Amino acid sequence: MLPKMFDCSVMDGALLRGYEPNIKKITHSFAIPCETNSYIDYISIEHAIVPVVKYHIFDRFENLIHGCSTRQGGVSKSHLASMNLSSSRGDDILCVKENYRRFGEALSFDPNRLVCSDQVHSTNIYIATEEDAGRGTTEKEKLKEIDGIVTNVKNLPIMTFYADCVPLYFYDPVKEVIAMAHSGWRGTVNNIGGKMIILMQKQYNCNPRDIVCAIGPSICKACYEVSEDVAVAFADAYSPEQYKQMITAKDNNKYQLDLHMACYFNFMNAGICPSNIALPDYCTCCNPNVFFSHRATCGKRGNLGAVIMMRQ
């Protein structure tokens, strides 16, 4: 029998017993004309409260389901506690499947129809169709060596996975196209965000001015120290003005890198309107009790999942 994560009571829609939402928020070093960014929705299902990070910028679209899991609300144990969505980190497969069931119930998508990727920090993007439904909950079924997924199919949830890297959400409400991209430093410097927008234009005739984007929970600049070779790669990929805004040099030949700003510039360079970009409020590394973080735990962690789907 699967364990219950919480003996919970619900008041005002939030979990008040078993989980204290004391979360440190990111203070961004730049201001852009975007909407209020993200919030955590504490969704009550049977036997649990499932916290999900959502974005106000998407709330006006009634046909759109989106969200990023936290590490709360599932049944996994130890360093995988509790909403681990990876079957490749040593977890009990029954616990992983129950976590998928709970996350799906909380957001009203069918986890048995998920299309998921086995990420390799590339810029490879897969165009998902109805035939791909269900390539999701085990490593065998996942798309291999894919870091971005795009589709125009209704009721087809697409998901990518995280533990500090950056989730990128895309939605074109005019052409009715959705996409997710996994953007670590390699994916960011190689511009997977911009490449996704170009593919949406070519495949679905999307106009970048119509596309709404969000940058999901991920490691912040204060937590993300990188070596000189990484800094040089970003210097080569961005303008000097952009580079100065995203990189801070330190005395030890290390650098602090702002992946959120880099992803923002990738969106802007691809033609996305500033008012159609939502920034993250939550750093995964600052909040290891709320999110899985590779850096904060030296790799001893599970995986978060970021999902998007259009209803029929």
Instruction: List the helices and strands in order.
Output: EEEEEHEEEEEEEHHEEHHEEHEE
Helix content: 10-25%
- In oligomeric terms, what are we looking at? single chain
Number of strands: 18
Largest sheet: 7 strands, mixed
**Would you identify the CATH architecture?**
4-Layer Sandwich
CATH topology: CNF1/YfiH-like putative cysteine hydrolases
Overall mean pLDDT stands at 91
Q: Indicate the proportion of strand residues.
A: 25-35%
Radius of gyration equals 18 Å
CATH H level: which superfamily?
A: CNF1/YfiH-like putative cysteine hydrolases
**Integer tally of domains:** 1
Which strand order spans the largest sheet, edge to edge or round the barrel? 3-4-5-18-10-6-8
Q: What would the principal axes of the Cα set say about the shape?
A: globular
Task: Spell out the blueprint of helices and strands.
Blueprint: E1 10-11, E2 14-15, E3 38-45, E4 48-55, E5 64-69, H1 93-107, E6 115-118, E7 125-127, E8 143-144, E9 148-151, E10 158-162, E11 166-172, E12 177-183, H2 185-189, H3 192-204, E13 212-215, E14 225-226, H4 228-237, H5 240-246, E15 247-249, E16 255-257, H6 259-269, E17 277-278, E18 304-310
Parallel strand pairs: 6-8, 6-10, 7-9, 13-17
Antiparallel strand pairs: 1-2, 3-4, 4-5, 5-18, 9-12, 10-18, 11-12, 11-13, 14-16, 15-16
